[in-house]
Amino acid sequence: MPTTIPAQAPVPPTHARPDGSILLEFRNIRIVYDSAIEAIRDVSIAVPEGGIVALLGSNGAGKSTLLKAMSGILHTEEGEVENGSIRFRDEEVHHLPPDELVRRGIVQVPEGRRVFPALTIEENLQMGGYTKTRAEARERRDKVFALFPRLFERRDQIAGYMSGGEQQMLAIGRALMTDPVLLALDEPSLGLAPLIIDRIYEVIVRLRSEMKMTVLLVEQNAQRALDIADYGYILETGRVVLDGTAKKLTANEDVQEFYLGVSSSGRKSLRDVKHYKRRKRWLS
Question: Which terminus of the chain is more exposed, N or C, with fewer CB under 10 A?
Fold first, then answer.
């Protein structure tokens, strides 16, 4: 039976602490594909240790590209960091291979979940714990089962026959098997029912508050992300156009109109939102 994770006091946002340290930092990053297409232009982002940072923006804004650069997999799509650097614990890491980044504690849950469909839940988790000893892997597996009881109940089920929500739980669980220091989640709510999204976001909060994990959250669902994030960055056309605390961004009129679909005059129609995109003040 899985062990129960002991409840601990919530960890306050690190960026609010006077002694808070930066765990991950993108410094003036420029990323190009095929040596010609600029995807990211002079982006600087800081992720404080122990916090939840949200990267928001529409499709094609560059959010997933930043995660791929951080995870060492840009080369699989002919991409490269042309200028700037990515630093983790104050060391440059963008030149390191993916397996070394995982061993250092940087783990990404990709968009679309990408579980091993022919393997069982248990076997998927075993694959995630390949860098750990057997004893460590068992301990991590029990914590995953405590976070996601449904995975424990169906641990012998073939992953390919699971629902989208269950596969997302498994994808997060597999990432947790490595005992990450920083967990990057790429669109964790994509295509999921509201009740499942609630469960996923509850777990993200627990990862920060109970397991003291730093989370970098990429989302198009701005409202859900800002509900749990400490700080946020908004990307458009490969650059940061707005950043601030989650409270500040939620109160921002531009964010309310375009990303949250509401304003002082009430919720906007899809037509209004599309029109607003063409007149966004921060891109002028």
Answer: C
